[in-house]
Amino acid sequence: MPHAAHSNVTYTIDRGVAHVEIDRAEKLNSLTREVFEDLVEVGRALKESTEVRAVVLSGRGRAFSAGLDFTEMSRLADEGTATASAAEAGVGNASPTGSAVDVGERLGSARALAQKAVHVWSLIEVPVIAGLRGPALGGGMQIALGTDIRIAGPDVQLSLMEIKWGIIPDMCGTQLLPRLVGPGMAKKLIATGEAIGAEEALRIGLVEELAEDPVARALELAADIAGKSRSALVWAKKLVDLSYEADLATGLDAEQEALASLIGTDEQRAVVTERLARMAKRSKG
């Protein structure tokens, strides 16, 4: 099983599905600089892979991620850092501990390390699915926000709790949460730091599906997605993401560009042939 540089994140690739796991179960997968670096490293590797057609992101054990490690919070407070997660992210060129991953240089839209650990999942061409069980708090919830689809278990706890530490969600949370739940609900969740469970998360659109075993369900959904045309999957994700930043005319033109690039290719013809064969088989049965 491949590990990232610090062995805090592991991943496997099986039949087009990459399963990425934060591997600090004994610490509820709490976040440190090394975890951020490993997430970015793995995300970059998957971004370059043409083998992968879907990605599942989860945490080992009973938690997705309980957020920033308390030892990191204490260390940063002792050093007089103004904002805990911003400093952990390595904003700018100065950092209490230094960083191995492009501090100050942009990865996509993100410049800070902790932001890159969230943003990198949107840069992967194919769908990324989060399987959420137990705590997904603070930075843990923000990492989940960076994925395309979220599946929650019955014991999930979701909270952007940074306000309780006198800071704000600075790992893309203020920008991504409103896209899912709207600006009013996003302001409420950020300003109160309240934790919500699975049913409420589904009701407000924070997660897309509930499952008794969210990781197993995420892997099942990823396997189904991986059976589809990779080129079509890439365009589908790209077009939906474009809808957040482009005007309608630009988006509609991009749809036509996508269709022109897909239709009649060997890959598309193979998909059609296989589907017609399945339909013929069902009709005979």
UniProtKB/TrEMBL annotation:
TM ranges: none
GO terms for MF: isomerase activity
A Pfam family per the record: ECH_1
InterPro entries with a match to the protein in the record: ClpP/crotonase-like_dom_sf, Ech1-like, Enoyl-CoA_hyd/isom_CS, Enoyl-CoA_hydra/iso
PANTHER family linked to this entry: DELTA(3,5)-DELTA(2,4)-DIENOYL-COA ISOMERASE, MITOCHONDRIAL (PTHR43149:SF1), ENOYL-COA HYDRATASE (PTHR43149)
Similarity comment: Belongs to the enoyl-CoA hydratase/isomerase family.
Record protein name field: Enoyl-CoA hydratase/carnithine racemase
Provenance organism: Brevibacterium antiquum
